[in-house]
Specification:
By secondary structure, this protein is an all-beta fold. Helices cover 0% and strands 44% of the residues. It has three domains: 30-305, Glycosyl hydrolase domain, family 43 (Tachylectin-2, Chain A, 5 Propeller); 317-385, Immunoglobulins (Immunoglobulin-like), CATH 2.60.40.10; 398-475, Immunoglobulins (Immunoglobulin-like, Sandwich). It is built from no helices and 36 strands. β25 and β26 (344-346) form a beta hairpin.
Amino acid sequence: MMKRYYCGYIIVLFLLVPLTGIMAQDDEMMKVHKLNINTRQYNEMTPVLISGGIVFCSDRRISGIVNNKTFDNDRVYNIFYAPHRDSLEWGNAAIYSDDLKSFFTRGPFCFSPDGSELYFTGDVETGKRAFKRGFENRSGIYIVEKVPGGWSDPVPFEYNDPLWNVGHPFISNDGKYLFFASDIPGGQGGSDIWMCRKEGDGWSEPENPGRIINSSSSELYPFFTPANELLFASDRPGGKGGLDLYSSRMHGSEWSAPVLMPEPINSEADDFGLIKEETGTEGYFASNRDRTDDIYKYISDLKRMSNCDSIIYDSFCYEFIEGESEKFDSIPFRYEWDFDDGTKANGVRAVHCFEEPGTYLVKLNVIDELTGEVKENEVSYLLEIKRTVQGFITSPDTCYTGEPIEMDAAYTYLPGWDIAEYYWNFDDGSADTGLKTEKTYFREGIYNVQLIISSHPDEEGNIDRTCVHKYIVVEERGFD
């Protein structure tokens, strides 16, 4: 495991998916560019975007004289920084921090959400044994803290083990989860993705997500988005070739079946370390599709929003209570509620569901059962019922593979909007537009459907946009 040291992640917010039913390999939908920070003969790997530039790993020379290699002729990786010029151009790269420069490999890394800590993959053994020819070192996770003028000395991760490889750390944007890759016992085989939960100032014991995520092959380079999507690389059978990128989503305590990311993100070469910018229309990944490992940028028209609201299911049901009745419990009164929609109910308490929004004058009539006297409109209340302002998805909650289902946005309530587009993201590598759509899923799993609604530009060119989502469970149809 982890013979090659890839590194770098970015905390970003968006998921990559195709647009309008067209798969992402369509050149009009997505373009891939090789960054100018790459070298011809050395390797550049997964980046991290920071303010003003890009941080990445490379085994390039750190000077014109020093050519860092181990005694077994493996190249040593260090962390580099290049300033940002424009969307595709970067300035000359230099060592990111002398505090992090080392003879030993500085591998895949991530920052804590507040940027005060850096977790990186490094060699476990740094003593005399590490300099012996043929010594097989192991990898571990190490933590450094931001200090005035640089970084502190590394502190080993509490779950490092000199007998096994631990590396490729990634901390979720909310700081609740730490994902990493390891071949420690208890996995499914090869290298597995593991997860720790934040507990006080430390991390819980590692948990293995199980066979739904991991396989008998190797799973590496985890990345977890705020939309509860886990991205990772794997060399399992069924991919394009070498390491391929997969996507799964956490729904409660369950994970959806991993989906192979589309081309041109995946190729017949090794593809790994996928990261995404906040907009979701741009991101970065590493690949050796052009002889050496290089960093690529994708630019696409694909849409998916991270800030997507759950649907609120309006209830127009209310309980009405006559609060003064206890004062007159010795008098035989009967209470009659008039709900102003053609229906009435009797009792001190009444529950009533209105069929639709509107303004209703709810009245309480009090009837003296001894005299028969009716006091109409003894109490009245003007009740204004409004729908929740939101997009709305009408669809089944469950379906079978191969079964077409209808999805409808007609119940959307966005008063004052001049709606230009209803955009459907089906969470399986396809999308569509329109007020209504039909969708067929061919793999079982839990899918997060997004409905993104955009308005026409106003006089100043501003466009309103909102998003709602729901989960659809797709089951394999059984046969008798």
